[in-house]
Design goal:
By secondary structure, this protein is α+β, with helices and mostly antiparallel strands. Helices cover 36% and strands 27% of the residues. It folds into 2 domains: 133 residues, Jelly Rolls (Sandwich); 70 residues, Orthogonal Bundle (Arc Repressor Mutant, subunit A). GO terms for molecular function: DNA binding; DNA-binding transcription factor activity; kinase activity.
């Protein structure tokens, strides 16, 4: 199976130098687990740099169905799509307690050098997320549910897995519902497919942990 290069779970996209400069200029905000940093439909002119915690970017349809577009770990931007001053298309909800820097749309850092670095980092971040969305759309159109789920779990293993005693463990707060929201499947479908993968002795899921029986 082809690896999912554009994994919708991002981390550590900025260097120390740029993070330090942003912290000198912009306000730091604290959020509690479950709190929204921003919500779908609201107007805002702020871009956020995640410093601590974990953020989920999602969209909810009029009938209440949720899709997760991405999950971010520290040193990632989120909320970048504000330049046209239209309402936000997505919500950002805290999966843990969160610390983030709130940047205004001027992106003023008082230095041409750092502003260039900031624009480059934002361009990279936005481009990468666009590729993630294209990958997700492609997977949902061209692949069956089992392929999408196994591809996501394999990519998480390769990016976050730690090998112990011949097994690869991924310690992430990943539920069947979250996998469903990331892959465009129903939760019962995810549960059935993970059960089938476990019967094939490929993996098992415990609380906040995926265990791959053999290294993919």
């Amino acid at each position: 199976m082809e690896e999912n290069k554009w994994l919708p779970w991002t981390t550590n996209m900025l260097d120390d130098d740029l993070v330090k400069k942003v912290l000198e200029v912009y306000q730091i905000k604290e959020y509690k687990k479950g709190q929204f940093v921003f919500e779908q439909g609201e107007l805002s002119d702020q871009i956020y740099l995640l410093l601590q915690g974990r953020i989920e970017i999602n969209m909810v349809s009029v009938d209440g169905k949720k899709t997760i577009f991405s999950i971010h770990e520290p040193r990632c931007f989120f909320g970048e799509l504000i330049m046209d001053h239209s309402p936000r298309l997505t919500s950002a909800v805290c999966l843990t307690n969160v610390t983030a820097a709130a940047l205004d749309s001027s992106l003023n850092l008082g230095s041409d050098y750092y502003e260039k670095k900031l624009y480059q980092a934002l361009f990279y971040s936005t481009s990468r997320k666009l590729k993630i969305q294209i990958q997700q759309l492609s997977d949902q159109v061209f692949e069956e549910a089992e392929e999408r789920i196994e591809k996501l779990l394999l990519a998480l293993c390769k990016n976050f897995g730690k090998e112990e005693s011949g097994q690869v463990q991924v310690d992430l707060p990943l539920t069947h519902q979250m996998i469903a929201d990331l892959t465009g499947c129903s939760r019962p479908t995810v549960s059935q497919i993970i059960s089938d993968l476990a019967k094939k002795d490929k993996l098992s899921m415990e609380r906040n942990k995926i265990i791959f029986k053999k290294h993919p």
